[in-house]
Structures are given as structure tokens and as C-alpha cells.
Design brief:
Layout (H helix, E strand, L loop, with lengths): L18 H14 L11 H9 L19 H14 L1 H20 L2 H12 L5 E4 L8 E6 L2 E5 L1 E5 L7 E9 L5 E6 L10 E2 L14 E4 L4 E3 L3 E2 L10 H4 L1 H25 L6 H31 L6 H34 L6 H11 L5 H13 L12
Helix pairs in contact: 1-2, 1-3, 3-4, 3-7, 3-8, 4-7, 7-8, 7-9, 7-10, 8-9, 9-10, 9-11
Length: about 400
Amino acid sequence: MTVVQTDSHRPTAPTMPDAGQLHQLIQRIADQAAQTDRDDAFPEAAFSWLAEAGLLAVTLPGHPLDPQQANTARLLQLLKRIGAGNLAVGRVYEGHINALQLIVEYANPEQKQRWYADVEQANRLFSVWNTQAGDGVRIHALGGGRYELEGSKTFGSGSGWIQRPLVTGELVGQGRSGWQMCIIPTERVKAIPQDDQFWQPLGMRASVSYKLDFTGVELDESDLLGQPGDYFRQPHFSGGAIRFAAVQLGGAEALYEATRTFLNSMNRTDDPFQQARLAEMAYLIESGNQWINAAGARADDWLGRDEEAGRLVAYANMTRTAIEEICLRVMTLAERSVGARGLMRPLPFERIHRDLTFYLRQPAPDATLVDIGRYVLHNTTPAHELWHG
């Protein structure tokens, strides 16, 4: 991020785009979305625009959405807006924000200084790559503060464009073990082979979520983040679901906007059936806004209070589940409103529908619902106080 000097030679405080600037930015991202709707394309321009707007560093300490300053609801609204522009951009951006929040939580002072500078001064993109199959990552301790990786990750969103991927793996050797985070400085390690044939998705093509083989990548102690097991600590691990849920809600909002525009262009705004469908879409999206705003407020109130960890995870799981149901219903209403004519390119419905369908398939939805039920069944707090106080 460029630092602008004032007359007193003091750097100005980082700022957010105002409402008008943010609207223009989201519109630019939306206008470009169709051009990168390919398995081998990445929305580089969109991330250049986000960097120019100061949004890559926006959650770092001292920046406008510093999480220590009770800004979670505002962050979720920003994630929703970016998702409305392009769900693939929103997915990669959410991964970047996730990695930075893990750095804020677990990095030592020297690491924070280095990785913050990567964002603030070099506009480097971070992400979190945790998903893997049977050939997953192991981090071998070689001694002398050196480590070597072995194995692969799947669904590495932003493959080839992420300069600071946060990769997890099983740490082994030198008397240490457990699930360890590390951040790979891509320009200082061997080339990381990418399997682009793995990535043949229904939607979210522009997220270029390839399979990557980290075998032979060497790191040192300063590249390891936190201690073994930190990645899965609650409520940060499950509580982060509210971020991807916000991006998904942006996709539903984009469908609503596109449907309204389409019906106006077809002079079908006086049709009572269309009015009823748009009314339902409107209240569903507004209920989604209520969910993410409430989830953000509760995250700010409960995070850091150990006794509230279970409640925060349960509320995040409810938010994720509710947003999924809202999105699925909005998708059906949009289809019925625009018909076959609206589901043909170059109109945006077909792409947004594919992207949202694919993005909604987050892991373990049934287990998430069971976790909510387990929490409320084992909690004797009266219903009217369960999520308050």
C-alpha cells in the first residue's frame, strides 16, 4: 500500500473506500467476471483494484477493519459486497483475510512485521490451503531449524497467484508432532507443481483451485506459524464459517439484482407472480443480512471469552446453515422468474448460479447441523436467553 505524506510529513491513517467508491469497485469486478470464467483464468485485475483501494490490508492492526476494534459485522458486509461482484474473487479474498487473521492471532512479533509488510508494502496475496486427500502434507523436521514438506493439497484457491499460501500439515520429527501451519514464501522455494486437471469444476472456475504438490519445499523455523494444533483451536476454526457465509450471501444478492434488472427490461414488473417472487427474494436476503450482522456482533462480544467458545461456534454454524438455505431458495426463485431466456449467456444468471451452487458445497453440512443440535440440547439456558447476554 502506498503511504501518502501530509504536510507535516506524517503518514495518513489507512482508510476504506466510501460508499460510492465501493459501489464503483464492485461494479468493475462484476463487469469483468465473465472474462475470467475459465478453469485457467484468475481475476488479477480485480485484486489489483482491491489493493489500490487498500482492501488487502484492511483487517491488519491500525487499519479500518482491525478485528480488535469490533469490526466483524462491517467485515462481513464487505465480504458480501465482494461476493456480489464475483463469487470467485470473494472466495480468494476471504482466504486472504482468513490467513491474515491467523497471523494476527498466532505469529510472533518478527513474523508479524514481515508478513504485514508483505501486504501493506508489496500487496502480496495470502490464502489458507488446508484441504487434502490421501497424499496430504507432512512437515519433516530436519534439525537445525530446517523443515522439508512432502505431499499435496487439493482445492488450493488462487494456485499460481498466491504469493504467501498458509499451508497446514502433520509435523513430524525432533520430538514435535501435530497439525502445523506454515507460510510459504513462494519466490524463495522450489517451483510448486500444479495439477490443473484436478480442477474441472461446475462453478467457481476463476478461483483456479488446483491440486499442488509441496514435496521438496524447504522452510526454516521463521516460516512456521504458531504451535502444532493451533489451526484447529476453537472458536477461530469453526467460527470463521461466518466469513464464507457472507460471501455466499453476496451471490444471492447478485441474483436478486440481476433478476430485478431482467424483469424491468422485459416490462414484466406488473406481473403479480413476479412481484411475489421478488418480494420473497427481498426478505430472504434481508434475513441473511440480519444473520451476518448478528453473527458479527456476537463474534466481537464473545471472542476471547473462553466460556463463550461453544456458543460462538454454534451461532456460526447456525449462520452458515441459514445462509445456505437462503441462497438455495433465492436461486430457485431467480430461475422461475427469468425462465430459460434468462439462463443463457451473456446474461449473468448461468454463471452466478453455477458459482453459488459449487461454493455452497462446504464440508460436513450434516455434521454442522448435528453440532448445533448437540449444543442446544445440552444447554439448559432458557430459549429467550440462549443467544443473548
